Amino acid sequence: MSNTLVTDTYKQTKRVSRSSSKSADTKTCADSAPSTSESKFERDIELLKSFDLTLEYGPCTGISRLERWSRAEKHGLNPPQSVYNLLQLHADDDNYKQNLWKDYDL
């Protein structure tokens, strides 16, 4: 077995600093900025995912988010009112109704 290192095999390259590429990144970010509704949807889904992953409110598999919220409320666990409001506002949308694990057979 030889005594060579992995770093001996691969050439080291200098990375471009963030400050020099900032002007180019700013231009592409402005062109690809999502619409307000898309970012709101993403924020809503992130809030609901964090609700799904909070074990304090009990298990989330096999029931909808609203059922889980109601069960947590019934047991005095004080689930976030913002989650309930969001679920009521989007009652017909499966992206909001179903939990994080909806696509998996658990």
Automatic annotation (TrEMBL):
Name of the featured protein: DNA polymerase delta subunit 4
GO molecular function: DNA-directed DNA polymerase activity
Domain of life: Eukaryota
Cellular component aspect of the GO annotation: delta DNA polymerase complex
Region (Disordered) residue spans: 1-40
Any one biological process term the GO annotation gives: DNA synthesis involved in DNA repair
Biased composition (Polar residues): 1-10
Native organism taxonomy: Eukaryota, Metazoa, Spiralia, Lophotrochozoa, Mollusca
